Amino acid sequence: MDINKKTKKYWDAKNVKTDTFVYNVIANSGTGANLFETGELDRAELTGDFAKQYKSNDNFVSRAGAFIYYVKFSQSVDVAKTGLDNVNLRKALSAAIDSNGLTEHVLSNGSIPAEGIVPADFVANPETGKDFREDAEPVINFDADAAKKYLALAKKRNR
Hints:
CATH class of the largest domain: Alpha Beta
Structural class: mainly alpha
């Protein structure tokens, strides 16, 4: 549990309305849901089955946040031994990940699939006012055919 108290040293202290803010790190959605139901939490982040279960609950709110989750492959071992030094293998793995399916069927909490490191609704073009994601080309695309093509190229290099 982390307890934060209002301080006069904060640059915008006059606009802070809360004297104390308690933050609990909750290990999983099930624990968060139980603590919310018993009144011990005011808010809990839900994913997967718990998000599906609570979607029809009047207390369920889905809010966009400026953060992303991503898959990172192990870099603590010699990448030549894993094959991850092969650019075509890395491209195949990237193209094989179905972000829409993951967010819709696994997270199931209203998450929006990322199309790059900068999430949607985070920053706008100062000249046009358009969202960065609208101006930028997607760098993350699920494409099973491209994944197969890159995997075949990766295998050829290793022969």
